[in-house]
Amino acid sequence: GSAPIAAEALEQIATLYGIENEIRGHSAEDRQKIRQIRSKPILDAFALWLQDQLGELAPISTGHLGLTERA
Fold first, then answer.
1. Which of 1, 9, 7, 8 is nearest to 58 (CA)?
2. Quick check: helix, strand or coil at residue 17?
């Protein structure tokens, strides 16, 4: 089912929020550097993982299309 997928997605998002909590209060320049070093690899891997998971989900709606189509 999709519950394990949702749980994993939330875990990945929580990791990113954790980094944001750690860097709160730093200068904008420092936050940008830290995001590139720590958050970007996680976000890139999460995006790939999410693409893989879309194939696992039943096509019950088209609501997920916004995740794969970028303007």
1. 1
2. helix
If we measure between CA atoms, which residue out of 19, 24, 10, 9 comes closest to residue 56?
Answer: 9
pLDDT digits (tens, 9 = 90+) for 18-47: 999 999 999 999 999 999 999 999 999 999
- In 10 A of CB 30, how many CB atoms? 11
Q: What is the pLDDT of residue 71?
A: 47
62 pLDDT tier (thresholds 50, 70, 90): low
Secondary structure percentages of the chain, helix, strand, coil, to 5: 75, 0, 25
